[in-house]
Amino acid sequence: MKIIDGKELSAKIRQTIKQEVQEIKEHGNRSPLLSVILVGDNPASQSYVRGKENACLSVGMENRTIRLDANISQAELIQVVRQQNEDPDVDGILVQLPLPDHFETNPVLDQISPDKDVDGLHPVNAGLLLAGRDGLLPCTPNGVMEMLKSIGLEDLSGLNAVVVGRSNLVGKPLSLLLQQKNATVTMAHSRTKDLAQICSKADILIAAVGRPKMITSEYVKAGAVVIDVGINRMENGKLCGDVDFEDVKDKASAITPVPGGVGPMTVCMLLMNTLKAYKEHESYGR
């Protein structure tokens, strides 16, 4: 059984990004810039934003964090997003989620310019993915694909993949990326009938359902690759995934841990998207 180490893999990819950013600077060009908009004082969101700031610094990118009071209006937040759209030095824009309860999330995200949408959540980028065209990909699904690639699973022809979870953030885009690599994909979720039986036929099983340790050994085919996207906090304060790691690890051929699996790859793909957006902007003379 192989543990797919997201920290190790992301460190390798970050090193490549760092070298590319260094070359950009050495040629006298500005650094790629990620602008993060944080509304309110949610402790988890603050922690995630600090992680993104540190990630940018680690590869030599510029970062800008715009901290806004939780009581601002939807119109005021949208105005801030539009200001970042219009700033030619900003390559990536990320609105940290969740927003405070009085905001409607989708109308805010829809205001982000698609070519600066480094979270890959704008309907234009979602549509490009559906059409199999080039756009900015959602970070977590893209990170999962990089993890599969790292263990030699790049062409997935002939393999059955089951994705448990149908969110716009992970499940839906990930199923499309797997299809692009020729996997036969089954989309399942918490209401799927005979879920354990369906999962047990998967060569690649991806859990993104948000239920702690839901996936046990009965869900897993012997020799399957198991990717755990879930991150849940248990009563004792420790983190766990949607997969019961101890129960499943000896049955899988490869498995991701929680923490230290998909999480670091998500941030890494954010940096990759920011660099990609930068290149697109500069190629258009912006």
TrEMBL record:
Residues covered by the Tetrahydrofolate dehydrogenase/cyclohydrolase NAD(P)-binding domain: 138-281
Keywords: Amino-acid biosynthesis, Histidine biosynthesis, Hydrolase, Methionine biosynthesis, Multifunctional enzyme, NADP, One-carbon metabolism, Oxidoreductase, Purine biosynthesis
Reactions performed catalytically: (6R)-5,10-methenyltetrahydrofolate + H2O = (6R)-10-formyltetrahydrofolate + H(+); (6R)-5,10-methylene-5,6,7,8-tetrahydrofolate + NADP(+) = (6R)-5,10-methenyltetrahydrofolate + NADPH
PROSITE patterns: THF_DHG_CYH_2
Enzyme Commission number(s) from the entry: 1.5.1.5, 3.5.4.9
Role of this protein: Catalyzes the oxidation of 5,10-methylenetetrahydrofolate to 5,10-methenyltetrahydrofolate and then the hydrolysis of 5,10-methenyltetrahydrofolate to 10-formyltetrahydrofolate.
Associated pathway: One-carbon metabolism; tetrahydrofolate interconversion
Binding annotation for NADP(+): G165, R166, S167, I231
Family, similarity comment: Belongs to the tetrahydrofolate dehydrogenase/cyclohydrolase family.
Name of this chain's protein: Bifunctional protein FolD
Pfam families: THF_DHG_CYH (PF00763), THF_DHG_CYH_C (PF02882)
Domain of life from the UniProt record: Bacteria
Keyword Magnesium: no
UniProt KW Methyltransferase keyword: no
Entries under HAMAP family matching the protein: THF_DHG_CYH (MF_01576)
Assembly information from the UniProt record: Homodimer.
Bilayer-crossing regions: none
Start and end residues of each Tetrahydrofolate dehydrogenase/cyclohydrolase catalytic domain: 4-119
Organism in which the protein naturally occurs: Faecalicoccus acidiformans
Gene designation: folD
